[in-house]
Amino acid sequence: MSNFKCGYVALIGKPNVGKSTLLNTILGEKISIVSEKPQTTRNRIIGIKNLPESQIIFVDTPGIHKPKNKLGEFMVKQSYEAMEMVDLIFLMVEPEKPAEAELVIINKLKKFKKPVVLVINKIDSVSKQSLLPLIDQYKDLFNFKEIIPISALKKDGIDRLIESVNLYLPQSPKLYPDDMLTDQAERFMVAELIREKIMKNTQQEIPYAVAVDIERWEETEKLISIGANIYVEREGQKIIIIGKKGERLKKIATEARLDIERFLGIKVFLEVWVKVRKKWRQRDMLLKSLGY
Ligand code: GDP
Ligand code: MG
User: Are 92 and 119 in contact (CB under 8 A)?
Assistant: First the structure.
C-alpha cells in the first residue's frame, strides 16, 4: 500500500495574524490565493500544497473566526459541521499574551476533538525571551499537539510546520489533480462525490467512464444550489442510472447531496440530469469547467 498522505488543514485565526502571508510562503508564488469572498460560514479551500509524498489542502473556516457574530443557530451549526471534515487545525496567533478573542476560539476548539497546532507568528518582531512565557500560557489553556513559533514573513519555522502537518494527515491518495486551481477545487470535489455515488449504486453495470459536469453553482448565505449533468455514452447506461421510476437516480442524488453538505458545510440544493454524449472524458469536463 502506498504511504501517500492527503488531508484537510483548517487555518484559523483573527484577521491580520498573517494567514495569507503564511499561505503565500507555503504555497509559493505559483498559486495565487483566491481573493476573499464575502464571509459565509462554510469551509472554503484556500490553497493546495503538493509535496512528493503528500497533498495538503488548506481550508478557511470563517464561522469560528467571528465567534461573537449574530448569525443564527443554523449558521453556527453549519460551521461546526464543516469543521468535522478537517484532519488538523492550525490556530494562528500574534506573539502576544492570549486575550479574550483567543480564549473564545480555544473554548470552541475544545468541542471539535481535533488535533490543534498552535502557530505563533511574527516571532521576528519580538525577543526570543518573550516567547517562552507565552508558550507556557498557551500550554495552560489547551492541549495543543504542538506549539510552533514561526515568521511567515521571514520564512522561519515553515519546514517544521509542514513536518507536523504530515504527522496528522491520513494515508490517502491525492484528492485533487496537481494543477488544480483553488477556486475550482470545490466544484471538482462535488463532481467527484456525485461520481462516487453513481459507482456505488450501479456496481459493475456502468463502466468507470462516467463524467459529471457542474453546470450551475449559485451561492446564497444559507444555501448553495447546484445543477449537475451526468454524461454517459449509451442510452442503456442512462436507463440503468435513472432506474425504475427514477428511484436509483433519486438515491444517488440524495446520498451525494448529504456528502456534499458535509463537505461544504452548508445546505445544498442538488439537481442532476443524465445525458447521453459520446466520447466525453472526465478530464475534458474539467478543462471545460476551467474555461479551456
Ligand atoms: P491575515 O489577515 O491573517 O491574512 O494576515 P496577512 O497575511 O494579511 O498579514 C497581516 C499583516 O501582518 C501584513 O502587514 C503582513 O505583512 C504582516 N505579517 C504577516 N506575517 C508576518 C511575520 O511573520 N512577521 C511580521 N513582522 N509581520 C507579518
Ligand atoms: Mg488574509
Answer: yes
At the topology level of CATH, where does 186-289 sit?
GMP Synthetase; Chain A, domain 3 (3.30.300)
Cell 460551521 sits on residue: 79
Number of H helices, E strands in the chain: 10, 9
- CATH 3.30.300.20 domain range(s) in the chain: 186-289
Set of cell numbers at residue 275: 445525458
**H-only helix segments in the chain:** 19-27, 62-65, 73-83, 100-112, 128-141, 158-168, 182-202, 235-242, 247-264, 282-289
Of all ligands present, the nearest one to the C-alpha of 18 is 1
197: number of CA atoms within 13 Å, CB side? Answer: 22
233-282 pLDDT per residue, tens: 889 899 999 999 999 999 999 999 999 998 888 899 999 999 998 765 65
Is the C-beta atom of 124 inside 6 A of ligand 1? yes
- Cell numbers at 14, concatenated: 483573527
Closest CA to 148 of 3, 4, 24, 26: 26
Residues 197, 143: Cα–Cα separation, whole Å: 38
Cα–Cα distance, 139 to 286 (Å, whole number): 45
Atom number, ligand 1, closest to the C-alpha of residue 125: 26
Rounded to whole angstroms, the Cα distance separating 211 from 287 reads 12
Candidate from 11, 12, 16, 127 with most ligand 1 atoms within 8 A of CB, to mutate: 16
Instruction: Please name the residues in contact with 285: beta carbons below 8 A apart, sequence gap of 6 or more.
Output: 191, 211, 212, 213, 231
Question: What is the tens place of the pLDDT at every residue in 39-63?
Answer: 555 677 888 999 999 999 998 876 6
Whether the CA torsion 74, 109, 7, 48 is positive or negative: it is positive
Look at residues 125, 93, 95 and name the one whose alpha carbon lies nearest to residue 106. 93
The model's pTM is 0.81
Superfamily grouping for domain 5-166: P-loop containing nucleotide triphosphate hydrolases (3.40.50.300)
